[in-house]
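FAQ: What does a ligand-bound record look like?

Like this one, built around fe (iii) ion:
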Amino acid sequence: MNVLGIETTCDETAAAVVAPGENGRGRILSNEVLSQIAEHAAYGGVVPEIAARAHVEVLDRLIDRAVSGAGLTLAQVDGIAVAAGPGLIGGVLIGLVTAKTLALVTRKPLIAVNHLEAHALTARLTDGIGFPYLLLLASGGHTQLVAVKGVGDYVRLGTTIDDAIGEAFDKVAKLLGLGYPGGPEVERMAETGDPERFALPRPMLGRREANFSLSGLKTALRIEAEKLAPLSTADVADLCASFQAAVVDVVVDRLRVAMRDFATVAGHPTALVAAGGVAANGAIRRALTTQAGEAGLAFVAPPLALCGDNGAMIAWAGIERLRLGLVDDLTAPARARWPFAEPAAIA
Ligand code: ATP
Ligand code: MG
Ligand code: FE
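The answer part, i.e. the structure of the complex:
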C-alpha cells in the first residue's frame, strides 16, 4: 500500500509517498519539502497570500517529484491523503483541490487528514509505538498535551490559553532582532548565554490543569530587554538562555500534571511523545528525555526532518485511516479551524 501525502496548510509545500513498513512502522519512499521561509522572512511571519501563491507555483512539480522519487507512477499510488486543515485557508484549499482532482482522475481514495492528527501519529511512522501514548504537540500555531488512545481517539489534557510555544519563540526572536523562524535562532543564541541572569516568570507553575500560558513570559522578557537597550550580543544570548530555561521549566511542570491526568483517561502510556516544530529544540528534548526516564517511559521524538511540517506525516496518517476504511469523498471541506482532540472531562 502506497499513499501520497500532500501538505500546504502553512509555509511548507510538501509531498511524500509512504508505505507500511516493518514492526508497525512506516517506510518513507520519498519526502519532498519546500520551505517558503525566505519569502516570509522579511515580514517576520507567514503572510497568507504569499503562502497560497507559493503553494500554487510549486505543488504540481513537487507531487511529480515525490511520486517518481518513490519509483512509482500516479496509477500505482493506492490513496491520496491531504491535510484539509487546520491552517491558512488559501493554502489548505490549494492542497485539497489538487488532491481531489488527483483522486478523481486516478479513481483512488481521498483521505482528508487533520494536520494536527498527522503530527500526533508521526511517532508511529518512525517508531511503530502502540496506543495509548502521551503527546506534547508544540508548534508555531499549537501547544497541546494529548492522550492519544487510537486513530481518531484523542483526549486533550491541556492547551495554551494564549501563545503557542513556537509562537513565543518566534516573538522573542523578533523582539531581539533575530531571524525568522525564531526557534532555531533563540536556541542557537541560548547555547552561549547564562540561563540564570534574568529571573523570568514560570507562568502556570503548580496549576491543577495541564494548561500553558506564555504571553506573560514574553512580556517579562521584553521589559528586561527594554531596560538594557541597546543590547549587546551577550545580553541577547543571556535573554535567550533565560527564556528557554523558563520554557523548559514550564513544559516539565505541565507535563507532570498531564501524566497524572493521563492515568485517569487512558491508563498507562506506552511512551512520551513529542511532535511539532518545537520538538526540534535540544533543551526541551533533553528535559523530556529525563522526565520520561523518571516515569519509566520511553521518550520518542521524530527526527528533526519530521518534526516540522512535512508530507510524510500526512501520508502516514492517510495509511492509518485508509487501513480502517476511513476515507472521504469529494465534498470534504477545507477547514481553517479543526480541533482534533476532545477536551478531557477531569474533575
Ligand atoms: P502548525 O502549528 O499548524 O503545525 P507550524 O508551521 O507553526 O504550523 P511547525 O512547522 O511544526 O508548525 O513548527 C514551526 C515552529 O516551530 C516555529 O514556531 C518555530 O519557531 C518552532 N521551532 C522550530 N525549531 C525550533 C527550536 N529549535 N526551538 C524552539 N522552537 C522551534
Ligand atoms: Mg511550518
Ligand atoms: Fe505543523
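Follow-up question: can I read anything off the structure? Yes, for example: DSSP finds eleven helices and eleven strands in the chain.
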